[in-house]
Amino acid sequence: MQLTEVQGLDHLPEPIRRYLEFSHVLGKRPIVSASFKTVGHMRRGMNPKWLQMSGQESMTTSPPGFIWRGRVSMFPGLWVSGTDSSIEGRGKMVIKLMSLVRIGEEEGDEADQAELMRFLSEVTLIPTFWLSPTLRWETVDDSTAGVALNFGATTTKATVRINENDEMSSLSGQRFMSVGHGRHELRPWTGRMKEYREVNGFRVPTAFEVAWNLEGGDFTYFKGRVENLRYAFEQQTMSRFDEKNAAMGEDA
After folding, report:
1. pTM for the full model?
2. 102 within some domain
């Protein structure tokens, strides 16, 4: 199955139509999953110190979800490992010291919403997902659109911005933030996408930043890059040559 042509996008907000044309999704097979490596730096909590991190992530589109496993270097010879996921609409994060001792865990309704928001910000790596019937769109202006993802009992809403180059440059919304002692509060949050390039025929971002939009200013807590991006496609109508290339994927 191939995706729709331009005339089939009339129900979408105009900036999203521009972005989809820019992303080269039209006439392509839908992407059903992606895997990639993340490398960069992050800050834990509100700590100003940047820590080196790396991880491996897999994403699926039906159902929408992801699982990320990675490691953050605290000091030379000391690290924490983490697993962050949204599976069947259930969000969960587990942190272990030296991959052995569990020192943190988040799950429940707040984690469900927070992890779906992460999924939405990263699914720019799978641009065919933006045509999914699970999404509901709302026109805001000529560069902004509202989007809602409903999955099970959880609804995640966000605002996406399309820049002058027709790139999706940011996705923002309310996301649950841990404020200590097992409590969570909804806070403004933004994911920014940068450095678009062509991978396997699609234009996708290869650099990301994530920030809490606090009253005193933005607190950016992740800056990183995507490497070794690989896709699996819907198998219908694939030739042997296409199947081989889909299985091999293409590095970003």
Report:
1. 0.89
2. no
